[in-house]
Amino acid sequence: MRTVVGLSQVGNGAVVTLEQSPNDVPDDGRCDPVELPGLLSNNPRERGATLMTLLESHRPVAEALRMALAQPAEGPPRPLYLRVRTPEIDALPWEELYSAAHGFCALDHRWPVGRIVNRWINLSDRTFTSSLRVVALLSAAGRSGVPQLDSLVKALRSPDARNVGLSVHVITGDPSVLDAAEHVHEPAFTCEEMTTAGTTVARQIAAHRPDIVHVLCHGKAVGGVHSLLLATPADFLGGEETGLVSLTASDLVRELAACNPWLIVLVACESAGVGEGPALAQDLTARNIPAVIGMRRLLDISEADSFCSALYPELLRVIRDSLNSSGNGRVHTIDWVTALTVPRRVLSGADPEGMGTWSDPVLYAQAEQLRIYHAEPAASEARIGELVTAKEELTTWREFRNLMEASDAPEELLDKVNSTVRRLERTLEALQ
Fold this sequence. Notes:
Elements: E1 3-10, E2 13-20, E3 31-35, H1 44-56, H2 59-68, E4 80-84, H3 87-90, E5 98-99, E6 103-104, E7 113-117, E8 126-128, E9 132-138, H4 146-156, H5 159-164, E10 166-172, H6 175-181, E11 189-193, H7 198-207, E12 212-216, E13 218-222, E14 225-230, H8 233-238, E15 245-248, H9 249-256, E16 263-267, H10 280-286, E17 291-295, H11 301-326, E18 331-334, H12 341-348, E19 361-365, E20 370-374, H13 381-406, H14 411-431
Parallel strand pairs: 1-4, 4-7, 7-19, 8-20, 9-10, 9-12, 10-11, 12-16, 16-17
Antiparallel strand pairs: 1-2, 2-3, 5-6, 13-14, 14-15, 17-19, 18-20
């Protein structure tokens, strides 16, 4: 039940399209030009109001937003997604979308805000059997990983963790984390020292077949190549600023390919910031990771620790609710953006207009939602066949749409293709 708005820059303006809505909207496939805002205000509310005005200048989008924002207070989430096609669009703070009637959308459980990457990928379905595996890489030079270790251990001891069979494995070059891990006496917790080469660190992570990968580190981008900078015990003791172990995004994704992870959480400054090429979080998502959470700007370590402390109970809640609603032998979608509302509220404190850092956590996701089969699928062969056929047809039309967009096809043709895609998306959703 999400609303997706597509945006791409054309000259000094942008083209806006309503790509998905739970409701039928007249002319929903129209591609209309709009004017991009100039210099944005320093005030989060004013920035968010400006961006909302931009979206509402497109009539079908305005109608879709009107219906979404009519969701009653007790209603379920109706996420708002922006499909960001160009760096100029991606650089705007969409998480700060502001409605005069409702306030900041992303701070209300009804309207969490996320981003969809431009590259469409046919996601493979994941299967949940009896446990959820989290692998945490805690190795940021000059920053203690102990508070985030504590958050993961606290999550491990929660009722929801027992419900989903959570296990946590920590990889670290931080001596303080290694020391603290010795005092964690939980059967589902393990810890090992990080190796001193990026490729072998990637193999260490993949060896534990993670569903969720959590990374505390520094990062860099040179010539569009993203790397995670990790610190060894010698780096910590020597006072290195960033750590000398470099793990490239491509190496990480290559090693994780066989694991089919569900989510990556990057607690690294500017990991969702647009610099040389796309953001690191967007880059990882575009490389076949279903979703990645990153940080848009510099983030104080205490704020990062607070974010992580609030995030993992919410991630477990999302998984628990998904498994409970689907039941054994059923397929269900997971929308990670709904887990970000509470952590964003924690960062916002009592003054979201003054504490702008609450909008820094950004979620990038694939256009296709993550689908999880719970235990051994017991659905009928006929139903499985319908699901497969609908998914294959939707894949074909989405790929055709990508070709149309890349070739500057006539707007009338693109409108028809968009309408077909949305119809097939609703068909697939009804079958799930």
